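Hi everyone, sorry if this is the wrong subforum. Our group has a chain we'd like a structural model of before ordering constructs, and none of us has done structure prediction before. Sequence below.
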Amino acid sequence: MKKSTQRTWGGRFSAGPADAVKAFTESVSFDWRLYPQDIASSIAHAKGLAKVGLLTKAEAAKIARGLRAIEREIKAGKFKWDPACEDVHMNIEAALVRKIGAAGKKLHTARSRNDQVATDIRLWLRGEVMRVLEAIRGLQKSLVALAENNVNVVMPGYTHLQRAQPVLFSHAMLAYAEMFERDHHRFGLSLLSLFRCPLGSGALAGTTLKLDRAYVARQLGLALVTDNSMDAVSDRDFVVAFLSNAAICGMHLSRLAEDIILWSTAEFGFITIGDGYTTGSSLMPQKKNPDVAELVRGKTGRLYGNLLAVLTMMKGLPLTYNRDMQEDKEPLFDSVDTLLASLRVMADMLGHTKVNRARCEAAASDPMLLATDLVDFLVKRGMPFREAHHAVGALVAEAESTRTPLPKLATKKYGAAAGKVFDVQRALAARTAIGAPSPKNVKAQIARWKKLLK
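Answer:
Right subforum, don't worry. Here is the predicted structure as tokens:
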């Protein structure tokens, strides 16, 4: 086997790694997507080296031109990624040396791949978080539009998947808008940890060479530098935070998907999903399956798995960098791709979903759904709540055993005023507390959401 003197770390070794090891340890097959950030951080690093006199201004400019030329080649699909160079960082550096010669060999001065990759991932994730925030807003807009277009449609609300009380369909849509608002908030907060620059931390102990870390950070639009070199190169909390936020957002997507799936069944019939967002059966010609919603529900498992994979990978690592940490990228990349695709397709699907008003309101017309309102009626007359609850429960049992409508029994026992309790529109209009589903409240919330999402 030939000596590995041309590898970045080859000087200490008499032989290069075995072919199986090369294949096992390479990461360029997936971390190539960090190339814009790697080039940006390398240009900033070169400028920083020039500022403190470790490069001439001419050398820094030459490096920057070479890196931008490589970036153009990558964007044009003309760049050949070499697995022998292990990762995106060394592929770009090797190409730079070939392109500009000796100046390229000076780029890695006072830098390790440890602080380099920690910086690149932060820069990459910062952009992806912004895309996730935008995608969440897109989904919220679809939810609010569907709510506004069906603002007065009454449907049953459910607990334990049993009909509970009447609500407005629009109120249910806004409930999901609230869930995704919490996701938006969490992802927004996660941006704070992505504005610290690890460059200058070296492998773990910084460098004896003079650097202006704050200057380099500013070149990358980062407000702060990391305060501890050992933590800087071994920290992946920001990756875990994104994966955790993605898993929670995925849970919300899955819950929405589950309702869409249920409501689109023949048994419910509350909604009809557009043909472009459903599929058929290879055997049964009559089928119209909510496969998009089912896939969104299923992909949530991947988001959970990616979080668990990185948490497990990190849990036993001593300070500082360990090669295990190469395993952070594929789960992170997959969660970003999965979450963005799920958010966007769900938003599109809701824009092509029709609410079947007659089916919703027929399901909400069961007077049993207003049994609690009868309890409230009795409470207003001075009966203690527990007694009222027991009395109405007994009345419900009588209605079921005698097959007598509950309003009829209520009127007979408590007078005509009790029978009026079972008017659905009256019942909804009376729910005026903050957060309750009166038409007035819901319309105000829709107006608030439209202003927020403008």
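For your construct planning: The chain has three domains: 19-109, 114-151+164-362, 365-453. The chain is about 60% helix and 5% strand.
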